[in-house]
Design goal:
alpha+beta, Penicillin-binding protein 2a (Domain 2), Beta-lactamase, 2 domains, 6-stranded mixed sheet, 19% strand, elongated, disordered C terminus
Length: 614
């Protein structure tokens, strides 16, 4: 190849290389940065688009919770001008001091980005502002989602929304000041599913902060993704019925479907209307509820550790059978109670001696004092303290003394004291006689209504349970969380439950402790409880499941200061069972006498208004 040809090829390569560099430089500096320089010349705003929050339905598809729009006035502090002040103050009916206070708060978050200036605009203010907002370039209106509830109860179950805290904003980048988040109940537990994913729209603004169209042809925009709808396990008709039965009473109802662990209803009384904690009146109403002496915000079903009373005898009997301390035929005498030296635990009149089945039917205290001491004094253990450790291990397998793991916040573990506690009270070598009151669910033992209802479900299932939960399905794919599909076994062999169930089946029959509360045609297996209350009249307790074969519902009812278990708790529980099983759809109840008495009865002491002073 001659020199001239070689020179030509090299020159051509250099020219091509130069063209490539020049072209690339053009695209980098002119084409690709045109949007950048355009943005610099005009400026841009990012507008957040909040997604529709997922709805909540009951197990039959009835709508419980739906969305409602609310409107916040947003501000970019660095873009405010002096003339904004008087106009905005007039539109919102606020003073100059309040105006600057709000601007300062927004600036602390980010002076160049939008944040909330005035949240939850009243609708009339929103409509008026919407017409003139373009006159105030530093301000714009942002639509957000609030809630409405189709029921004026079930508040502890459904929960409510509120404004995010500074800590949440700091810990979770998804949220910005002024955002709404689930604060309690299902709204809190399932926030990540219900909230959806925010969208955004980036717009160009001129030097007067007026919108000049989409930035980069919408390249950086994104559409919001709606939150997932949730089908709850709640039977809203049963829920409403339970709330009616607890009118003018203090207490709780928890009903569970034994085979699935699905919560059918959680009723607390006093209750409150969840719609009170919506919109502009949220903070004012919350303060009022918080100061209410009857504590309507308190979730008794999950947090209140009540002495379980005689309902605890079922667990004691099962542990005694498993440990070989008793057999179904074992009898113990009762002469008006249990006596040992100066120790006495009283009992009501009934035949004596009784075997295990009839001890449940008649709720004999003496039987369970003998039984519990037999568990703790069992010679196969080195000491009472070792036997007590084993006993508490049994309890934990029932979900007693621990948090069961329900998908609602604020669950309590109840009260089961460790052996070290008794060592401090009674000395290192404390004896079974020191804790004999625990044999009948008194003394140093406390169970929540949820735990007691779960005990009923365990007996119904003959030894196992699924973690109680309030959600049946999440989203369009009908998914369910894995932890609510697994069976949890107790430490009790299945065959031991037969005698217990047989005894429970006699409780609501003539001669049983709740014999006058039976519902015709329903085989209800129950256990009454009367829990001593140092602050007043005893609490009325009843746990049950029905029907005996293939149980569909397990339930616990606690009525504070209701007296004997058969007085209030048993009738209410049995009416709830009847309503759920719906044996007679044309009648409100086959026991109209019970229904009328429960609906009309009141156990609340009248509130006495405080005297006013001049």
């Amino acid at each position: 190849m001659d020199k001239s040809r070689k020179f030509f090829i090299i020159l051509l390569c250099l020219i091509l290389l130069g063209i490539i560099f020049i072209t690339r430089l053009y695209f980098l500096q002119i084409v690709d940065t045109s949007n950048y320089y355009k943005a610099q010349a005009y400026g841009s705003n990012e507008i957040i688009i909040h997604p529709p929050r997922g709805t909540i339905l009951d197990r039959k598809g009835q709508l419980l919770v739906f969305n409602d729009a609310l409107y916040d006035l947003m501000v970019v502090p660095d873009k405010t001008i002096d003339s904004d002040k008087d106009a905005i103050c007039k539109e919102l009916n606020i003073d100059t001091l309040d105006y600057f206070k709000r601007i300062k708060k927004a600036s602390r978050y980010n002076s160049r980005q939008a944040s909330v200036f005035y949240k939850n605009l009243p609708y009339k203010v929103f409509t008026r502002l919407q017409e003139v907002i373009h006159l105030y370039p530093a301000f714009y209106i942002e639509e957000k989602i609030d809630r409405r509830y189709n029921i004026n109860g079930a508040a502890h179950l459904l929960g409510y929304l509120g404004e995010v805290s500074e800590k949440v904003v700091k810990d979770q980048p998804y949220y910005k000041p002024g955002d709404i988040i689930g604060i309690a109940g299902m709204e809190k537990s399932y926030e990540v599913y219900l909230r959806g994913i925010k969208g955004r729209r980036v717009v160009l603004v001129d030097k007067f902060s007026r919108q000049q169209g989409s930035f980069a042809k919408g390249k950086f925009d994104s559409l919001p993704i709606s939150g997932q709808n949730i089908i709850s396990s709640i039977d809203i008709d049963l829920q409403k019925f339970g709330e009616q039965l607890l009118t003018n009473k203090i207490g709780s109802i928890v009903a569970i479907e034994p085979q699935t662990g699905e919560i059918l209803s959680i009723v607390n009384s006093p209750n409150y209307d969840p719609n009170l904690l919506v919109g502009q009146e949220r903070n004012k109403n919350f303060s009022r509820l918080l100061l209410d002496p009857r504590k309507p915000l308190f979730n008794r079903a999950l947090k209140a550790p009540y002495p379980p009373g005689s309902t605890f005898k079922l667990v004691q009997a099962l542990i005694g059978l498993q440990e070989g301390v008793i057999e179904p035929s074992t009898t113990f005498p009762c002469f008006g109670g249990y006596r040992m030296g100066s120790l006495k635990v009283g009992c009501h009149a009934h035949p004596s001696p009784l075997d295990l089945e009839n001890s449940i039917k008649n709720s004999c205290n003496a039987y369970y004092c003998h039984l519990y001491r037999g568990i703790l004094d069992n010679p196969k253990y080195n000491s009472v303290q070792d036997a007590y450790d084993k006993w508490t291990e049994y309890l934990r397998s029932f979900g007693i003394g621990i948090k069961i793991g329900i998908d609602l916040p604020e669950e309590s573990s109840g009260i089961i004291k460790k052996k070290e506690y008794f060592a401090k009270v009674f000395g290192k070598n404390w004896r079974s006689a020191n804790v004999v009151s625990m044999s009948i669910g008194q003394g140093e033992v406390g169970l929540t209504p949820l735990q007691m209802a779960n005990v009923a479900a365990i007996v119904a299932n003959k030894g196992w349970f699924i973690t109680p939960h309030v959600v049946k399905n999440i989203g369009d794919y009908q998914t369910k969380l894995d932890e609510f599909l697994k069976k949890r076994q107790t430490m009790i062999d299945k065959h031991h439950f037969d005698t217990i169930i047989s005894g429970m089946s006699k409780v609501c029959l003539p001669g049983g402790t709740a014999g006058r509360t039976a519902i015709p045609g329903i085989s209800i297996c129950g256990k009454t409880g009367t829990a001593q209350n140092p602050h007043g009249k005893d609490h009325s307790i009843f746990i049950a499941f029905a029907p005996r074969e293939n149980p569909k519902i397990a339930i616990c009812v606690i009525i504070e200061n209701g007296g004997f278990g058969a007085a209030f708790a048993a009738p209410i529980a049995n009416l709830m069972i009847e309503r759920y099983l719906k044996l007679d759809k044309d009648s409100p109840s086959l026991r109209l006498d019970l229904l009328e008495r429960m609906m009309k009865s009141s156990l609340l002491e009248p509130t006495i208004p405080k005297p006013t002073t001049n």
